[in-house]
Amino acid sequence: MRWLREHVVLILGIAILLYTFIPIFVVVLMSFNDPSSRLIYRFDGFTMDNWLHPCEPEGLCSALGTSIQISLLATLGSTILGTLMAFALVRHDFLGRSSMNLLIFLPMATPEIVMGSSLLALFVATGFSGQLGFWTILIAHIMFCVSFVVVTVRARLAGMDDNLEQAAMDLYATPRETFWRITFPLVFPGILGAALLSFSLSFDDFIITNLNAGNTTTFPMYVWGVAQRGIPMQVNVVGTVMFAISVLIVVGGELNNRRRSKALATAS
Amino acid sequence: MAEMTRRRGLTGYLLLVPGVVWLALFFVIPFYSLVAASLFDPGGSVFSGYEMTWHVQNYWDALKEYGKPNSWSDWGPLLRSFWYAGLSTVICLVLGYVLAYAIAFKAGRWKNLMLVLVIAPFFTSFLVRTLAWKLILGDDGPVVSVLQAVHILGADGRLLATPVAVIAGIVYNFLPFMVLPLYASLDKIDHRLIEASGDLYANPFVGFFKVTWPLSLPGVVSGTLLTFIPAAGDYINAQLLGSTNQRMIGNVIQNLFTDANDYPAAAALSMILMVVIIAMVLFYVRRAGTEELL
Amino acid sequence: MSSPADLADQGAARATARTDSFDGLRLENVTKSFGSFTAVDDLDLDVPRGSFFALLGPSGCGKTTTLRMVAGLETPTSGGITLAGNDITYAKPYKRPVNTVFQSYALFPHLDIHENVAFGLKRRKVGNVDAQVTEMLELVELESQARKKPAQLSGGQQQRVALARALINKPEVLLLDEPLGALDLKLRRNMQLELKRIQTEVGLTFIHVTHDQEEAMTMADTVAVMNAGVIEQMGAPQELYENPRTTFVANFLGQSNLIGGTIKSRAADVVTVDMHGVDVSIPAARCHADGDEGWIGIRPEKVLIGDPGEQLDAPGNSIPGGVVTDVSFVGVSTQYQVRMPWGQEIQVFAQNTGHRRIYRPGESVELSWRPDYAFLLDASQDAKAGAQEGTD
After folding, report:
1. Residues C242, C233: Cα–Cα separation, whole Å
2. Which domains does chain A have, with CATH numbers?
3. With the C-alpha atoms ordered A111, A116, A119, A120, is the resulting torsion angle positive or negative?
4. Contact at 8 Å (CB) between C291 and C365?
């Protein structure tokens, strides 16, 4: 009884955590499903077919390819733009700091539907409504990822002891050497985290993408489309692979952290 | 002078320029386009073009059509969105607080692992996970069967196409946005304060509300905002788990843009959504007294 | 690290303004303002080569700013800094032969101990780095920790790495910014001795910034007491303690009783002061008061306590009419608060030699001190300046 009272919060917490994994179990299970009909979405039997022929459903793999391309480019673009801004915010003095903070905060506090519709309104107003597609999606994705990059990298930079850079200068390192040997290696985990976040935000986005995609189809749009008709089980294969990759990255990062956590304790 | 010295000069501006230009072009200016579009002549179309007629009437039409309750059971999409989002936020707060509290204070050396597990499921596509819920909550699914067996649901009762399913979906999808900020502020609390409160207040609940809760308020404020705002604009859960009776404002805006091609009405509705959210956020942040968030 | 010729010329030109051929560190009329706040005010300072120099003062007194200007991490608003005759006022931090041991140590967390210590040598493209690093790690007794990361070491070990990382560059001046502040008392005592040993061994100029007066007095051969951006007094620790020139120094370095008095007569070697009706004499060399009024200063351990009318071992000043108000027994000594007839409480530290009894609160006593120990300070100063700030 006493044990229960002391652990009740932890047990509830673990229960909530398990609840967040319920759909994942279903996704993994359904990736092995052998459906009797396209219209009935339930587990009918085990098969490896979905895994052996992931590209069988028409359009799935091309949508996936489009999504990966867009996400990679959006990650690259937003990580560069956001990292530069984070450095400016933490390390440099400039006029209009508070409006800059607002400009970075607002995209995170705006509902996606509003961001998506205003971008569409812009494209229509400037006569680009016919050119909606890959590039407009990419523009939108970079836009909404930048703020998250800034916030992540800024936190890392602000948490860094600025004495370290002064110590490097004191030890005969030029500003350039100081940046590449001290600042950048210490901020890099933050930049990497921001890039991963950008990738997953971009890869997963539906609402903004859907409004600005024209005839281009990304993976979420493909899923949305087939959800009305009948879902090919290969969608669950993709879901499972995404989950596995993210777990590998996150757990790998965590193990790496654990190995070096003591060593890096002072940096964070 | 131990404090951070920020460098003056041109470099700071140069570093800001690319990002600021991008955000200005594709975030700020589009707002003006949206305002403009919401005032276009509703008689135009995407194909024939729109005329700027300062047609403020678009707003009244949109509010009349989507903003007022039709009956006691049908609140209309706009009010329903805020109702669903608000209720989901409260449920998220309860679940998220328990989880964040467990991670921050009870998880010991499993802290980092649990944090990782909070985020892990959300790397799998939002849509794919929501479709999985559709299966779980489906008419032949395990949840409905159990609820029918214990007579909470009638023999032909269902969860899909009800507010329960939509709210459950929203709660599920936005839970990490609640847990992470809550965890961040709970983790900063000095454990000794909590132990001291255990000595001061005989009842642990009193101790909790006198010490832990006030100290975690910044996390509560940012967590509820990060949950409520996207939830109010979401339409994926309503579309996949609900029916036309659970339509939210996002569904309407989306339809007006992509299917009905009624840009002025869609833009006006977007503006209304944004303005209401900003008003609510400002009111809430002021009441909570944590303006540092901005 | 030889300085560029043009800098040397400028330095030489500047150096002629004052005594030539000074080969230490010299600050001339250095002022540093941050907005309207003046951190360092028209500071002149000579630090001889090879000395262990302590800059002592409460937090915010400008000592760290002074240090940072010497390191090149701040630029003076006006004035100049020369090192062995070379002007280094505006030289970049990475171009001056000065290294710093930071208060937080500022060890690079992503590099191991060996790499941390090697950092400066590698930036200067010096050869034979590994051997030098090994030698330096031996000096600070950390050779077995070379491949560990800083966070895996204890506070004292980290401090020694920070020291090694700076020392290995053989700077002309080594700056220590409260390097022992983060250590516990016992470790701090050990490190103080170790630092002193290393300084004697390598013979470099050390400038040590601290707010801990005991630390400054233990380690340094010259101490400069700094307050509100100016140096109040500078000299050997013993000289500062025994003959303070300002109330700030009297209170900040140890404790002092400061009693108001009126100067009655000034002879060539002795000044007589009326202290609330009692005449006390003070050697002229220890008088730092210009007007008719002054603060008579006496250290608590120099005050003797005895029964009324008792002839104490203090020919000269004897002050009757005291009443003990508080006694605390601290082992080696007994500390008394004695209320004097004029209402002031005087602190007395009596050694527990066993020859004298311990007084109880309420007892009447007579106080006395040798005139040679007293000092006289200017009455225009605040008698409480610097008090209580000395103990962290």
Report:
1. 12
2. 81-231 (1.10.3720.10)
3. negative
4. no
| Helices and strands, counts by H and E, chain B | 15, 0
Note the pLDDT of residue B3. Answer: 40
Selecting from A26, A236, A251 the residue whose C-beta is nearest the C-beta of B136 gives: A26
Tokens 């949950």 correspond to B227
Q: List, as one string, the DSSP characters of A48-106.
A: SHHHH-TT-STTHHHHHHHHHHHHHHHHHHHHHHHHHHHHHHHHB--S-HHHHHHHHHH
* A169 Cα to chain C: minimum distance (Å): 5
Among 1.10.510.10, 3.40.50.360, 3.30.365.10, 2.40.50.140, name the CATH number for the domain at C255-378: 2.40.50.140
Count of positions (residues) in chain C: 392
Q: Is C93 on the interface with A (CB under 8 A)?
A: yes
Judged by a CB distance cut-off of 8 A, whether residue B14 touches chain C is: no
The 10s digit of each residue's pLDDT in A121-134 is 899 888 887 888 99
The structural architecture, per CATH, of the domain B53-293 is: Orthogonal Bundle (1.10)
Nearest residue of chain B to residue C74 (CA atoms) = B1
CA distance to partner chain B, nearest, from residue C75 (Å):
13
Cα–Cα distance, B3 to B8 (Å, whole number): 15
- State residue B212's pLDDT score: 85
- List CB contacts (< 8 A) between C39 and chain B: 1
Average the pLDDT over each of B242-256, C11-25, C40-54 and give the range with the smallest value.
C11-25
> Could you tell me if B4 lies within 8 Å of chain C, comparing CB atoms?
no
Cα B172 to Cα B159: distance, rounded to the nearest angstrom: 15
> Which residues in chain B have their CB less than 8 angstroms from residue C74's CB?
1
Q: By the 8 A CB rule, do A49 and A237 touch?
A: no
pLDDT in tens, B158-203: 888 889 999 999 999 999 989 999 998 898 887 777 777 777 766 7
Shortest CA distance from B269: residue in chain A = A114
Query: Please, are residues C228 and C248 in contact by the beta-carbon 8 Å criterion?
Result: no
Contacts of A90 in chain B (CB under 8 A): 4, 6
How much is the CA Rg of chain C, to the nearest whole Å?
A: 25
Task: Give the Cα separation of C147 and A44 in Å (integer).
Answer: 58
User: Given an 8 Å threshold on Cβ–Cβ distance, is C94 in contact with A170?
Assistant: yes
Q: How far apart are CA C260 and CA C252, in angstroms?
A: 19
**Stretch C196-219: mean pLDDT:** 88
* C contact residues 65-84, partner A, Cβ 8 Å cutoff: 71-73
Predicted ipTM of the assembly:
0.88
What is the pLDDT at residue A185? 93
Neighbours of chain C (3+ CB pairs under 8 A): A, B
**b/e burial code for range B163-196 (CB count within 10 A of at least 16 → b):** bbbbbbbbbbbbbbbbbbbbbbbbeebeeeebee
Higher pLDDT, B41 or A224: A224
Q: Which of A209-218, B44-53, B217-226, C52-61 has the lowest mean pLDDT?
A: B44-53
Q: Nearest chain B Cα to A258, which residue?
A: B112
Domain ranges of chain C: 5-97+171-242, 255-378
Asked if C298 contacts C314 with a C-beta cutoff of 8 angstroms, the reply is: no
Give the tokens for residue B220. Answer: 């509560």
How far apart CA C287 and CA C280 sit, in angstroms, is 13
CATH 3.40.50.2300 fits C5-97+171-242, yes or no: no
Of A164, A169, A262, the CB nearest to C93: A169
Q: Is B19 on the interface with A (CB under 8 A)?
A: yes
CB B17 within 8 A of CB A100: no
Which pLDDT score is estimated for B73?
Answer: 75
Place of tokens 């969608």: A235
User: pLDDT band for position C10 (50/70/90)?
Assistant: very low
